[in-house]
Every structure is written in structure tokens, then in C-alpha cells.
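Input/output pair, single chain:
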Amino acid sequence: MGMNVLYVEDNPDNMILVKRVLEAAGHTLFQATTGLNGVAFAEKEDIDLILLDINLPDIDGYEVARRLRHSEKRILAYVPIIAITANALLGDAERALAAGCDVYMSKPININELRARVEGFAGREKQDGS
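Output:
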């Protein structure tokens, strides 16, 4: 069974690529183009996984991750977050992990790595019976 995946990303080309990859794998992709919209969506809907760009037009992905992890919707403290970002400087991965992300991936998006990361979380979900 596929997962409900929220992708918070303001670049339409990246959104199209990820949508094709995830929907082909049987997942449902929900889209938010700003950090604030992403947080609001996650707080309203049942999401199994979040893909998060760091460079967003309103609040950055680090702040999005922090807000999700401290949300009143307690399950968001445990929903996996994969940071997907063009930030590839020393310390960027550590910043993403410290903000609450579980995985850090750099752009350009490697679709094989993305597929493997997402399926790793999907497999864990299925094993837990959640």
C-alpha cells in the first residue's frame, strides 16, 4: 500500500519529477509551495512522509521541520522528514538533522536514491503495521 507523501517545494520542475517517481511507485503526493502551507497541510491531513526543500520563499525548511516536530498534532514528531536541498555546504546536513529531519539529500535529485529512501520508510511503516 502506498504512502501519503507531502512535498514542500517551490520549484515546479522538481515537483513534477518527484510526482512522477512517487506516483509510479504507488504513493500519493500532496504539494505545498511554501513552508507555512506545508505545515498547515501536515497539521490537517494524514501524512506518512514529508519531503522538504530547505530554500523556501517564506520560512526555510529548518523552521518548517522545527514547527512540525513541535506541532500540537503529536504524530508529526515522528513522521519521517527527508530534506532535499541544493545547500551542500559543510554543516548543512547537520543543520537539517538538528532541525528534525531524518535524512538529508542534495540536489540535483537522484531519482534512484529518492526512490530507495522513500521505500525504506514505506517498508518500515509496513513492518510496524501502522
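The radius of gyration is 13 Å. DSSP finds five helices and five strands in the chain.
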